[in-house]
Each structure stands twice: as C-alpha cells, then as structure tokens.
Amino acid sequence: MLEKVIERTNEYIESMPKIKRKKYGQFFTSLETARFMSNLYNLSENKEYITVLDAGAGSGILSCAFLEWVEKFDTVKEIKLTCYENDENILSLLKSNLEYCKEKSTKKVIINIITDNYITSQYLDFNDMIGSNPKAKKYDFVIGNPPYMKISKNAPEAMAMPTVCYGTPNLYFLFASMGLFNLKEDGEMVYIIPRSWTSGAYFKRFRQYFLTYGKLEQIHLFESRNKVFDKEKVLQETIIIKVRKTQIMPKTVKITSSNSNNDFARITSITVPYSLVVSKRDFYVYLVTNEKDVEVLKKLQGFHKTLPEIGVKMKTGLTVDFRNREILRDVEEDGAIPLFHSQHINQGKVQFPIQKESEYVVTDQKGLMQDNKNYLFVKRFTTKEESRRLQCGIYLAKEFPQYKKISTQNKLNFIDGLLTEMSECLVYGLYVLFNSTLYDQYYRILNGSTQVNSTEINAMPVPDLESIQEMGRRIMKSKDYSEKNCNLILEGYYG
What we know:
The chain is elongated, with a radius of gyration of 26 Å. It has a nine-stranded mixed β-sheet with strand order 3-2-1-4-5-7-6-8-9, with helices on both faces. A five-stranded mixed β-sheet has the order 11-15-12-19-16, with no helix packed on it. Strand 13 and strand 14 (349-350) form a beta hairpin. Mean pLDDT is 92; it is low at 226-230. By secondary structure, the protein is an alpha/beta fold. Helix 1 (2-15) packs antiparallel against helix 4, helix 3 (31-38) packs across helix 4 and helix 11 (291-300) crosses helix 13. The protein has helices at 2-15, 18-22, 31-38, 61-70, 88-104, 123-126, 156-160, 171-181, 204-213, 274-277, 291-300, 424-434, 437-446, 454-459, 465-478, 483-494; strands at 49-55, 78-84, 108-114, 139-144, 183-194, 214-222, 238-245, 252-258, 268-273, 312-316, 328-329, 337-340, 345-346, 349-350, 360-361, 370-371, 375-379, 392-395, 405-408, 412-417.
C-alpha cells in the first residue's frame, strides 16, 4: 500500500512550490526510510488493540508504513490511528491516502485527523496546569518526521513548552518532546530528526527532558547528508532514533548506520554501553559507529576535569568583520593593534603578519580588545575534507612585545585563563591535547558539523591541571610539536 502513497506524494511535491512547503518545514520521508522506521518497533504477541500517533503527518507516509507493518501480526485486530496536520494544502491528500490504506488493510482501522496545532493545543496538559486533563490521550506507539523549522523564542509553540526551550528553538525538538509526552509508559517512539540536538548548550533543556523520561534503544546514522530525503535538496545531518518511555536505565544502546536511505540492506551495527553513549553530566549523545570510537570515549572517560574546572575557558573571537568594517586596516598604522584570524595559525604556531586583508584594527571599544597574553588559538571552522577538525596554534605574548592589546576575529576561538594568565607550559600542554588524534576523534564523534563550538569544548573531559602542565613541559623539552609526538605524550596519562 505504501508505493501508492509515495506516488501520490511525489505528485504533490511536483505541484506544490518548495517555498510553500518550507512554511511548514515539510520534508517528506522516503519509502525505504518509512519502512525501516516501522520495522524498529516491537509488538507484544498478545496485543489485539493498539493506538498510534503521527504528529505532523503530512501526506501520511509514516502512518501508512506503520499500517503496512502491522499487517504481519495476526493477533492485532484493531488499530486506532491519530494524525495531527494543520497544513490545509495537504489535508485532502492525507485523508485520501489514509482512506486508501484503511481499505487495503485487513485490520479494523479507526482514523482520527486533528487539525489543531499539535503543540499549543496540548500546552495545559504538558505543563500540568489548571484545566489540564490528567487522563490526556496516550499512545502505544508514536512515529514521526517532525517539521524542521526555527521559530521565535516568543512564538506560541515555544511559549507553550518553556521547560525544553532555550534561545531560538526549532519545531522538531518541540514535536519530539511532545511525542514522548504523548506516549504511554513503556511505549515506543521512532522519529527521524536532525542530529544537532545531541550536543551543545542550545539543546540542553530538551536533552534533559527527553533523556530523563525516555531512553534511547536504537540510533541509526546516515553517512551521506544529501541522500536521506527523496525529491528534496536537504544538506542536514539526520538520524533515526527509537526511544522507549521509561526512567529505567538500559545497559546498552544499538547504533546502526547506512550510506543513504536506499541501502538499508547494507547496515553496520554496534551495541554500546548506554553510559558510554549518553553523558550523565550534560546529556550529550555520542554517536559512535565502530569499536575505534568506543575506545576513544573509554579513554576520555578516564579524565574527570573540564577546562573551566582547571581555570581556563574557550571563548569565541571578539571582532565580527562585517559589523566593524570601519575599524579594519590592511596595513599597520599609529594606534593599530593586530587582528588575528584563523589563517594566522600555521603548523601549531601563530604567524603574524602574513600580508592578508584586515590584519589590524583601530578601535577604542573595550569589547573588541583583549590583553596581549598567552593563549591557545583554535580554528572555529574547518572544511569537511580537512583531515583534522581541531586545528590550533600557540600564541605567546612575549613574541609580540610591541602590543599591549590585540583582537581576535570571530571565526577564531581562543583559550584564556579565567583568573590569571596561562603559563607557557599550560599553553603547550593544552596544545598537546588539541593537536592529538584522540581529541580530534572525540570531537568528531561529539559533533557532526565543521564548527568547533566553545560550549562543547568547555564541557569535554580533560586531565587535571598538573598533568597538562607536565605535558607542556615534555613537548617544550622535545621541541617536536607533531601530532605523533602529542599522541605519545598523551598516551602516558590515560594508559
């Protein structure tokens, strides 16, 4: 029955301009992905009546895939399917697709399409407010491809779910939170969503809620970013998650991966300790794909400090070029101070000047200046093709004695002492960490993007202060600043 629904959906996609679909954050699930998602559920053999929720149902692809999957179970006699959809352009297609599947099904299928706003219509229940319904509808199964769309922090949906929102939220994690809320205890939920929620401060409240009241049972990764949604040009790191509503901590989580949505027959699989994948401290989710990744995390778990806990912190460069064009200078002049860019990092050192544009600024704005002292500079952006995500350079104030102040460009991160200036051996010790293979691999597991995020860096596990300083003294003595030597030095502290 699903092939027909996909065929009708493709006709809709061709007729409906993407600009209109983007208004609702619509990206349609492929046939193969929908079937894969449905097959992730477990169904009790003695279950005769089941309830399922598909919020943001679109054309009904996932609902129909679920109904198709249930056909395999002779014990199931009746299915109540609830779909939320408030896009008037697609409602008639959703209704006809569901009726078609109902006719084809050998089960008794009861269909309920709700056109209310999925989030705001349940805000009383979600927040346990006066007027809420303690017996609010709960479902055995929840399936979804939620809308992917940023909304204002003052949008009605964001205001309806304050416990999971921070900054400017995205509809997809509001749908995921509400989906978990709508599950019965021990119910199962399968969602296809971006991976961006797995780390960073932006999604912390969501992770706390989602991973406290639900537990990950399986995560599926796609190696290709552009082969997940058919008929759509989407460059988004996307994952499929299976979640059980429970507060009981599982021992393991299964992580699978495929290249795209067309090769689910060629899946790699690994089962990993749950405590290794889900961090207790920040609820970060580490998306490991092989034993090598597991070993990286095990080694890092031997370190129990963070950068702020040892007295240093990564910060983002101060000067945003396009907002401060009037203060930029290509050559030095009276009153000018250096503006360091990521291009000034070269083989672990900071080289300046290099005769590039905007190497200097002339300003009296305190917010754009910092003391000329010791730092570790770290590139904020790299390309997918580059061999390393973490690329750093040692900056020593003594090498630029003519300046009392300097500035850093916004595409550069820097590590600074919180209370006192970092010693040279501490800067070199931090260089050992950031230039090692281990920490580069760790960051790739943590974050799928090419951006080095200061919040994530400040939360990562590091050795204690004395150990890092000792590493610095060892590399300074050796005068070998290669990645290989950094690896050798670091090995002595986690082995």
